[in-house]
Amino acid sequence: MIKRAIEPDFREELQMNRSTTETQLIGPVLALDLGEKLVGAAISDDRLITIKRLAPLKRTNWKRLLLDVEALIRDFDAQMLVIGLPLRLDGTIGSAALEVERMARNFAKSLKLEVYLQDERLTSFDARQALLSEGHADSEIPSLIDGEAAALILRDFLSAPEPRHLITEQPSDSNSN
């Protein structure tokens, strides 16, 4: 019941936060695939041409994750952050998407760069297929799939038509941490 009451507001918020003008993409761009145990990461080059998978981050608590992401931003001089939004296959918003949106808002409040959401439906499947096509063995895939999923999220973000889903800080939302 609670989820249904929240979902329409979230949809409206995504609509309101959509950029109405073309987003000026500035690289490098860091992408995250927020899993329950691991966070996949990928980074573009500063010209937004190539994308590199990074080692996954262990997901323990918010403070540790924030420190790890801040280190990646600093190490790669990232100018934007993109987070995969796990919509349901039919495009509706479920509890996982609401949790990712909450975390994206926390990143937007904590970091000094723009934070975007990117639809990540089927990226895990596509990541597995891409790794297999690169010649990776089934035994290698678990250690690579999170980074590959983040790379696919970043690829989709960079090639997506406007508008993009910019997360803005909501000062009135005081209990999001």
Description of the structure:
By secondary structure, the chain is an alpha/beta fold. The protein is built from five helices and six strands; from the N terminus they run H-E-E-E-H-E-H-E-H-H-E. It has one domain: Nucleotidyltransferase, domain 5 (2-Layer Sandwich), CATH 3.30.420.
Unreliable stretches (pLDDT < 50, length at least 5) are 1-21, 171-177
CATH superfamily: YqgF/RNase H-like domain
CATH architecture: 2-Layer Sandwich
User: Strand pairing plus helix content: what structural class?
Assistant: alpha/beta
Summed up, what is this model?
The chain has 177 residues and is α/β, with parallel strands linked by helices. It has helices at residues 2-17, 62-76, 95-110, 123-133, 141-159, and strands spanning 29-34, 38-44, 51-58, 80-85, 114-119, 165-167.
Features:
single chain; six-stranded mixed β-sheet; Nucleotidyltransferase, domain 5; 6 strands; disordered C terminus; 177 residues; globular; disordered N terminus; alpha/beta
Secondary structure blueprint with pairings:
Blueprint: H1 2-17, E1 29-34, E2 38-44, E3 51-58, H2 62-76, E4 80-85, H3 95-110, E5 114-119, H4 123-133, H5 141-159, E6 165-167
Parallel strand pairs: 1-4, 4-5
Antiparallel strand pairs: 1-2, 2-3, 5-6
Helix pairs in contact: 4-5
